[in-house]
Amino acid sequence: MGYKGLVMDIDGTLYNSVKCITEPTRKAIFCARDEGKIIVIASGRPIPGIADVSRRLEFAEKGGYIMGWNGGRIINVQTGEVISETLLPDGIVAEIAALAAEYDAPVVAHTSDTLVSERPDDPIIQLEARLNRLTVSKIDSLAGYSEKRLYKCIVTGSDEKLVHLERIAARHFAGRLSVYRSEPYFLEILPFGIDKAHAIDVLAKHLDMTKDDFIACGDGFNDLSMIRHAGLGVAMANAQKAVKQCADYVTESCDEDGLVTVIQKFLLA
Known about the structure:
By secondary structure, the protein is an alpha/beta fold. It is built from 11 helices and 14 strands. Strand 10 and strand 11 form a beta hairpin.
Protein backbone atom coordinates (compact mmCIF):
# COMPACT_ATOMS: atom_id res chain seq x y z
CA MET A 1 0.00 0.00 0.00
CA GLY A 2 1.02 3.65 0.14
CA TYR A 3 1.05 4.01 -3.65
CA LYS A 4 1.85 7.48 -4.92
CA GLY A 5 0.79 7.35 -8.57
CA LEU A 6 -1.66 5.86 -11.05
CA VAL A 7 -0.65 4.96 -14.61
CA MET A 8 -3.59 4.24 -16.94
CA ASP A 9 -4.03 3.03 -20.47
CA ILE A 10 -6.79 4.78 -22.44
CA ASP A 11 -8.84 2.44 -24.64
CA GLY A 12 -10.55 -0.27 -22.64
CA THR A 13 -9.26 1.15 -19.36
CA LEU A 14 -9.87 4.87 -18.87
CA TYR A 15 -12.31 4.91 -21.80
CA ASN A 16 -15.37 2.70 -21.67
CA SER A 17 -16.52 0.73 -24.70
CA VAL A 18 -18.04 3.83 -26.34
CA LYS A 19 -14.77 5.81 -25.97
CA CYS A 20 -15.92 7.99 -23.07
CA ILE A 21 -14.59 8.78 -19.60
CA THR A 22 -17.51 8.33 -17.22
CA GLU A 23 -18.17 10.99 -14.62
CA PRO A 24 -17.55 8.61 -11.66
CA THR A 25 -14.15 7.71 -13.10
CA ARG A 26 -13.29 11.36 -13.73
CA LYS A 27 -14.28 12.34 -10.19
CA ALA A 28 -12.25 9.51 -8.66
CA ILE A 29 -9.15 10.59 -10.61
CA PHE A 30 -9.67 14.20 -9.49
CA CYS A 31 -10.00 13.04 -5.88
CA ALA A 32 -6.73 11.10 -6.11
CA ARG A 33 -4.92 14.08 -7.62
CA ASP A 34 -6.34 16.41 -4.95
CA GLU A 35 -4.72 14.12 -2.38
CA GLY A 36 -1.35 14.56 -4.06
CA LYS A 37 -1.27 11.43 -6.21
CA ILE A 38 0.54 11.48 -9.57
CA ILE A 39 -1.81 10.86 -12.51
CA VAL A 40 -0.32 9.42 -15.70
CA ILE A 41 -1.72 8.39 -19.08
CA ALA A 42 0.35 5.68 -20.83
CA SER A 43 -0.78 4.91 -24.35
CA GLY A 44 0.35 3.67 -27.72
CA ARG A 45 -1.44 6.72 -29.11
CA PRO A 46 0.60 9.71 -30.28
CA ILE A 47 0.63 12.82 -28.10
CA PRO A 48 -1.94 14.61 -30.34
CA GLY A 49 -4.25 11.60 -29.98
CA ILE A 50 -4.25 12.04 -26.19
CA ALA A 51 -5.11 15.74 -26.22
CA ASP A 52 -8.83 15.22 -25.60
CA VAL A 53 -8.13 12.96 -22.63
CA SER A 54 -5.71 15.52 -21.22
CA ARG A 55 -8.31 18.27 -21.52
CA ARG A 56 -11.03 16.15 -19.96
CA LEU A 57 -8.80 15.40 -16.97
CA GLU A 58 -7.59 19.03 -16.75
CA PHE A 59 -3.91 18.09 -16.91
CA ALA A 60 -2.83 21.56 -18.08
CA GLU A 61 -4.60 23.27 -15.17
CA LYS A 62 -4.14 20.76 -12.36
CA GLY A 63 -1.26 18.50 -13.36
CA GLY A 64 -0.69 15.21 -15.09
CA TYR A 65 1.80 13.31 -17.23
CA ILE A 66 1.50 11.68 -20.65
CA MET A 67 3.51 8.75 -21.97
CA GLY A 68 2.77 8.79 -25.70
CA TRP A 69 3.86 6.27 -28.31
CA ASN A 70 4.11 3.63 -25.54
CA GLY A 71 6.67 5.79 -23.76
CA GLY A 72 8.52 7.12 -26.79
CA ARG A 73 7.76 10.62 -25.53
CA ILE A 74 6.99 11.54 -21.91
CA ILE A 75 5.74 15.02 -21.04
CA ASN A 76 4.59 17.04 -18.07
CA VAL A 77 1.43 18.58 -19.49
CA GLN A 78 1.17 21.40 -16.97
CA THR A 79 4.69 22.73 -17.56
CA GLY A 80 5.20 21.53 -21.13
CA GLU A 81 8.48 19.86 -20.13
CA VAL A 82 9.61 16.96 -22.34
CA ILE A 83 11.00 14.47 -19.85
CA SER A 84 12.12 11.90 -22.40
CA GLU A 85 12.01 11.36 -26.17
CA THR A 86 13.22 8.39 -28.20
CA LEU A 87 12.93 8.11 -31.99
CA LEU A 88 13.30 5.26 -34.46
CA PRO A 89 16.84 4.97 -35.85
CA ASP A 90 17.43 6.61 -39.22
CA GLY A 91 16.84 4.26 -42.13
CA ILE A 92 15.15 1.49 -40.15
CA VAL A 93 11.69 2.17 -41.64
CA ALA A 94 12.86 0.83 -45.00
CA GLU A 95 13.78 -2.45 -43.33
CA ILE A 96 10.44 -2.61 -41.51
CA ALA A 97 8.54 -1.94 -44.75
CA ALA A 98 10.50 -4.61 -46.63
CA LEU A 99 9.76 -7.26 -44.01
CA ALA A 100 6.05 -6.36 -43.88
CA ALA A 101 5.82 -6.44 -47.69
CA GLU A 102 6.87 -10.10 -47.68
CA TYR A 103 3.58 -10.82 -45.89
CA ASP A 104 1.46 -8.23 -47.73
CA ALA A 105 0.98 -6.35 -44.44
CA PRO A 106 0.33 -2.58 -44.58
CA VAL A 107 2.58 -0.29 -42.53
CA VAL A 108 1.87 3.15 -41.11
CA ALA A 109 4.58 5.37 -39.60
CA HIS A 110 4.04 8.00 -36.89
CA THR A 111 5.60 11.45 -37.11
CA SER A 112 5.01 14.01 -34.37
CA ASP A 113 1.69 15.17 -35.83
CA THR A 114 0.61 12.93 -38.71
CA LEU A 115 0.61 9.41 -40.12
CA VAL A 116 2.25 8.28 -43.37
CA SER A 117 1.64 5.10 -45.35
CA GLU A 118 1.89 3.60 -48.79
CA ARG A 119 -1.61 2.19 -48.24
CA PRO A 120 -3.59 4.88 -46.42
CA ASP A 121 -6.95 3.36 -47.41
CA ASP A 122 -6.31 0.20 -45.41
CA PRO A 123 -9.31 0.01 -43.00
CA ILE A 124 -7.17 -0.61 -39.92
CA ILE A 125 -4.90 2.33 -40.77
CA GLN A 126 -8.02 4.44 -41.20
CA LEU A 127 -9.15 3.27 -37.75
CA GLU A 128 -5.82 4.38 -36.28
CA ALA A 129 -6.27 7.79 -37.91
CA ARG A 130 -9.83 8.19 -36.58
CA LEU A 131 -8.88 7.15 -33.05
CA ASN A 132 -6.17 9.78 -32.95
CA ARG A 133 -7.92 12.44 -35.07
CA LEU A 134 -4.96 12.55 -37.43
CA THR A 135 -4.70 12.53 -41.20
CA VAL A 136 -2.90 9.83 -43.18
CA SER A 137 -0.61 11.06 -45.94
CA LYS A 138 0.00 8.76 -48.89
CA ILE A 139 3.62 8.31 -49.88
CA ASP A 140 5.06 6.32 -52.77
CA SER A 141 7.59 4.44 -50.65
CA LEU A 142 8.33 4.22 -46.96
CA ALA A 143 11.79 3.06 -47.92
CA GLY A 144 12.50 6.47 -49.42
CA TYR A 145 10.69 8.57 -46.84
CA SER A 146 12.89 11.45 -45.74
CA GLU A 147 11.24 12.37 -42.44
CA LYS A 148 13.80 11.73 -39.68
CA ARG A 149 11.59 12.17 -36.61
CA LEU A 150 9.59 8.95 -36.53
CA TYR A 151 8.33 7.55 -33.24
CA LYS A 152 7.02 4.15 -34.31
CA CYS A 153 5.58 2.01 -37.07
CA ILE A 154 2.43 -0.08 -36.93
CA VAL A 155 2.00 -3.17 -39.10
CA THR A 156 -1.66 -4.12 -39.56
CA GLY A 157 -3.39 -7.38 -40.38
CA SER A 158 -5.47 -10.23 -39.04
CA ASP A 159 -4.79 -11.70 -35.60
CA GLU A 160 -3.53 -14.91 -37.20
CA LYS A 161 -1.13 -13.10 -39.52
CA LEU A 162 0.26 -10.83 -36.84
CA VAL A 163 0.84 -13.65 -34.34
CA HIS A 164 3.12 -15.18 -36.96
CA LEU A 165 4.70 -11.90 -38.04
CA GLU A 166 5.33 -10.79 -34.45
CA ARG A 167 7.61 -13.80 -33.88
CA ILE A 168 9.45 -13.20 -37.14
CA ALA A 169 9.89 -9.46 -36.57
CA ALA A 170 11.01 -9.97 -32.97
CA ARG A 171 13.78 -12.31 -34.16
CA HIS A 172 14.73 -10.11 -37.11
CA PHE A 173 15.01 -6.91 -35.04
CA ALA A 174 16.30 -8.51 -31.81
CA GLY A 175 18.48 -6.04 -29.92
CA ARG A 176 17.58 -3.22 -32.33
CA LEU A 177 13.84 -2.58 -32.00
CA SER A 178 10.99 -3.41 -29.65
CA VAL A 179 8.21 -5.47 -31.23
CA TYR A 180 4.85 -6.26 -29.63
CA ARG A 181 1.12 -6.07 -30.29
CA SER A 182 -1.12 -3.46 -28.72
CA GLU A 183 -4.28 -4.95 -30.24
CA PRO A 184 -4.84 -8.21 -32.12
CA TYR A 185 -4.71 -6.22 -35.40
CA PHE A 186 -1.84 -3.81 -34.47
CA LEU A 187 1.81 -4.91 -34.43
CA GLU A 188 3.84 -2.05 -32.98
CA ILE A 189 7.52 -1.56 -33.81
CA LEU A 190 9.32 0.98 -31.65
CA PRO A 191 12.84 2.03 -30.66
CA PHE A 192 14.64 -0.67 -28.70
CA GLY A 193 13.67 -0.81 -25.04
CA ILE A 194 10.67 1.48 -25.40
CA ASP A 195 7.60 0.15 -23.63
CA LYS A 196 5.37 1.25 -20.80
CA ALA A 197 7.51 -0.41 -18.12
CA HIS A 198 10.55 1.55 -19.26
CA ALA A 199 8.46 4.71 -19.29
CA ILE A 200 7.46 4.17 -15.66
CA ASP A 201 11.14 3.84 -14.73
CA VAL A 202 12.01 7.08 -16.55
CA LEU A 203 9.19 9.04 -14.92
CA ALA A 204 9.85 7.52 -11.49
CA LYS A 205 13.51 8.59 -11.66
CA HIS A 206 12.47 12.09 -12.76
CA LEU A 207 10.11 12.36 -9.77
CA ASP A 208 12.52 10.76 -7.30
CA MET A 209 10.18 7.80 -6.94
CA THR A 210 10.43 4.08 -7.76
CA LYS A 211 8.34 1.77 -9.92
CA ASP A 212 6.87 0.30 -6.74
CA ASP A 213 5.20 3.64 -5.99
CA PHE A 214 2.93 3.22 -9.02
CA ILE A 215 -0.26 1.33 -9.79
CA ALA A 216 -0.48 0.41 -13.49
CA CYS A 217 -3.87 -0.37 -15.07
CA GLY A 218 -4.52 -1.70 -18.56
CA ASP A 219 -6.24 -4.19 -20.80
CA GLY A 220 -4.08 -4.75 -23.92
CA PHE A 221 -0.96 -6.62 -24.92
CA ASN A 222 1.15 -3.46 -24.77
CA ASP A 223 0.11 -3.03 -21.13
CA LEU A 224 1.71 -6.31 -20.10
CA SER A 225 5.13 -4.80 -19.45
CA MET A 226 3.90 -2.11 -17.05
CA ILE A 227 1.43 -4.41 -15.29
CA ARG A 228 4.25 -6.87 -14.57
CA HIS A 229 6.63 -4.06 -13.58
CA ALA A 230 4.69 -1.63 -11.40
CA GLY A 231 4.20 -1.91 -7.66
CA LEU A 232 0.63 -3.07 -8.33
CA GLY A 233 -0.39 -4.37 -11.73
CA VAL A 234 -4.13 -4.20 -12.46
CA ALA A 235 -6.04 -5.71 -15.38
CA MET A 236 -9.53 -4.67 -16.36
CA ALA A 237 -12.16 -7.43 -16.49
CA ASN A 238 -12.38 -6.76 -20.25
CA ALA A 239 -8.61 -7.24 -20.68
CA GLN A 240 -6.95 -9.78 -22.94
CA LYS A 241 -6.63 -13.14 -21.18
CA ALA A 242 -2.82 -12.91 -21.03
CA VAL A 243 -3.08 -9.53 -19.31
CA LYS A 244 -5.43 -10.82 -16.62
CA GLN A 245 -3.20 -13.83 -16.02
CA CYS A 246 -0.19 -11.66 -15.18
CA ALA A 247 -1.98 -9.02 -13.10
CA ASP A 248 -1.83 -8.71 -9.32
CA TYR A 249 -5.48 -7.69 -9.29
CA VAL A 250 -8.38 -7.84 -11.75
CA THR A 251 -10.89 -5.03 -11.37
CA GLU A 252 -14.31 -4.52 -12.96
CA SER A 253 -14.57 -3.77 -16.66
CA CYS A 254 -14.19 -0.35 -18.26
CA ASP A 255 -18.00 -0.27 -18.58
CA GLU A 256 -18.34 -0.84 -14.82
CA ASP A 257 -15.98 1.95 -13.71
CA GLY A 258 -13.24 -0.49 -12.81
CA LEU A 259 -10.77 2.34 -12.26
CA VAL A 260 -12.98 3.77 -9.52
CA THR A 261 -12.60 0.54 -7.55
CA VAL A 262 -8.81 0.60 -7.97
CA ILE A 263 -8.53 4.22 -6.84
CA GLN A 264 -10.76 3.70 -3.82
CA LYS A 265 -9.30 0.36 -2.78
CA PHE A 266 -5.58 0.97 -3.34
CA LEU A 267 -4.79 4.63 -3.95
CA LEU A 268 -6.94 6.40 -1.37
CA ALA A 269 -6.96 3.72 1.32
